[in-house]
Every structure is written in C-alpha cells, then in structure tokens.
Prior knowledge:
By secondary structure, the protein is mainly α. The protein has two domains: 11-106, Recoverin, domain 1 (Orthogonal Bundle), CATH 1.10.238.10; 161-238, Death Domain, Fas. It contains 14 helices and four strands. β3 (148-149) and β4 (152-153) form a beta hairpin. The two termini are 33 Å apart.
Amino acid sequence: MFLSSKKKLTFENFLRGMKWCEAGDTDTKLRAIFNLLGSAKNVTRANFIKVLEIVYHNPEDKKAIPGIADVVFNQMDSDKNGNFSEKEFVDGIKRAISEEILQQVLQFEVLPNYMRERLYEDLPEFQMDVALASGETSAAPTPSPSTFIGGFSTARASPSDRTIKHLTDKIYTKDLERLCNKLGLTKEDYDELKGKSRDNKHLATLILMKYREKSGGQTNSKELEKALRDAGMIEASQLLAP
C-alpha cells in the first residue's frame, strides 16, 4: 500500500503509513498487531510460543511461556482447532479487555507535532475532512492546515469535522448526558439527539455537531477543552490542549 512502483518505501510514504497507524480504529490496530505475529494466516501454538520466546529473555520468565500460551489459546481459539485466525484474535482481545481500556492501550502518537503539521500542509489526503460517522456534512468552514496542532484546530473557530471525528472516538463510551450539560445544551437537546441516534458513537457525534451549531462559530478549542475536562473526559480534552 505504501511502497513506490520500485518496491521501495519513500520517506513521504513512511509518513503516510505512520499517520495511518495513529488514525486507525481499534479493529484496524488489532489486525495490525495480529500481523506482527509473523503470519498472514492462522497462528499455531508452536508459532505463538516462538514469538513469546523472543519477547521473554529471562530464563525464569521462559518457564511461564507454556502457561501463557495455554491462557491465550483458551481465549482466542474459539473453535478449538489448535490455532487462531485474525478474526478470532480481534474478537478474543475485545472479549477480554473493555473498549475503554483498549482505546487507552492502543492510543499512541508516532509522529512529533511539527511533523504532523507538515503532513496537513503538504499531503493532500490529510487536508480533507474525515467523513462524520453520521454521514452528514457540515457547512462550517475548516481552518487552514496552518491552524492545526497535532491534527486538531487551535484557531478561534468551530470544531472541524476532523476534530469531531477524533473526539467522538474518545468520548462515546462516557457519560454523554453530562457532557451535554457542560456544553450548555439542554436536557431536551439530549433527549432529541438520543432519539435520532443509532448508537452511542452516533450520539456523541450528534452532540458535538449540535454544540457547533449552537455556538454559531463563536467557540474555540479552549472552551471545548474545558467542557470536556469538566465532564471528566480528560483524555479527549488533552487532544485539544495547546
């Protein structure tokens, strides 16, 4: 996907790959981890033990490897055929670990801020707004790339579609009714949006869009950051921190 026609990885495509790693959803990142196990097919117990032997160097730790393999295969190998597929791996991880903890574990930033800014300036695919989960588009103007730090708007403007998409991924498992209150939305607003939403993720998107609509373009990232922080959504608020 990121190789040039000469089968070489250019620095520009390396940056594209790094940005893709950061922006991927939970399932995408888990599939990438599965591929790191060294097999595009199913992972056998023998292959998994080889991976564990690379990870655990201490002789005392190596004694625990068979037991670790047993625990993992009991969780992952749902059809008990002696190996697990990519789907079994992803489903097994999601059964064992809550979505909130998974997001925290898999949240990482590979690129430093100055390099991420350059991506938005120089690579056209990162200048386009990410489509909203609701499938709706917004008439609100998107700030120019130079107003982005780490991909999030710091200008005195309404949150962009891209910002809403990233924030939604962080907050949809939280107390969204409390967030409505901190954003200055009413109980009636919340009930109306909940009635329109398909699920919590869609509801989170609708709440942020409603906030943007009511603000009339007069809000900024600092005000939104404070509302998120006051609602106890610290990780999401940090995305907007200077």
